Amino acid sequence: MIEIRNLTKKYGTFTAVDDISLTVSPGEIYGFLGPNGAGKTTTIRILAGLSLPTSGVVRIAGHDVGSDGARTKSIVGYVPDRPYLYEKLTGRELLQFVTNLYGREWRDCESRALELLRYFDIIDWTDARIENLSHGMKQKLVIVASLVHDPAVLVIDEPMVGLDALAQKQVKVLLRRLATEEKTIFLTTHTMSVAEAVCDRIGILHRGRIIATGTTPELKSNRALEDVFLELTYGND
């Protein structure tokens, strides 16, 4: 469902992503780990259609994100690391707005939206202005907005920002449930426990290049994933 071949992204003379290749299948959760500045968010933004590659090919469901961006955006749900919300809108108005952006009718998506709002225990805040929500509630609303149109692919940049322990558990359970529905999920996280709990495979990015990839057991080799990560990244400096 996600195919990346020889992806490179440059900003002037700086190479943020350096010739990476990977695939993620339907029903698979792929964790993209790396230190700050490794190129994770740059890759995520390309997958979400917010930035174009300097070279290489990125396809989602067979569609090239560069030449067929409108099609790829319609089947992708995106959770940014620092979401911007229209604070004067209510939660319902935001979800209706997002639904329209994806070219869908609210009447076709409303039941799914309400189901997700109930799941995250924010249904009572549906008609409150977003400015009155806590940081954690806003993060939950962003996740709901990314799923309201029932996307085939979910791209998430740091899903646990601002969430308490219960909400983090809810996100983990939801991601595994989506995987059983054959959704393709690509996420970045700095939380090793999240990667271990939900990811089928993990790629470790360092200075724009993938330096290790595999399942959690393959990468750990009887060690803590955190120790392996630190050795592979900071141990290379």
Outline the structure in words.
Helices cover 38% and strands 25% of the residues. The chain has helices spanning 40-47, 69-74, 91-101, 106-119, 135-147, 165-180, 192-198, 216-220, 225-233, and strands spanning 2-11, 14-24, 29-33, 55-60, 63-64, 76-79, 153-157, 184-188, 201-206, 209-214. Helix 3 (91-101) runs parallel beside helix 5 (135-147) and helix 4 crosses helix 5. The longest helix is centred in the last third of the chain and has 16 residues, at 165-180.
Spatial order of the strands forming the largest sheet:
6-7-8-3-9-10
**Approximate helicity band:** 25-40%
Share of β-strand residues: 25-35%
Rg, Å, rounded: 18 Å
Which parts are unreliable, with pLDDT below 50 for 5 consecutive residues or more? none
Query: What is the name of the CATH class of the largest domain?
Result: Alpha Beta
Mean pLDDT, nearest integer?
93
CATH topology of the largest domain: Rossmann fold
Sum up the overall morphology in one term: globular
Give the structural class: alpha/beta
| DSSP strand count | 10
Q: Summarize the main sheet.
A: 6 strands, mixed
Elements, N to C (H/E)? EEEHEEHEHHHEHEHEEHH
The CATH architecture of the largest domain would be 3-Layer(aba) Sandwich
Please work out how many helical segments DSSP would assign.
Answer: 9
Distance between the termini: 34 Å
Q: What count of structural domains?
A: 2
CATH homology superfamily of the largest domain: P-loop containing nucleotide triphosphate hydrolases
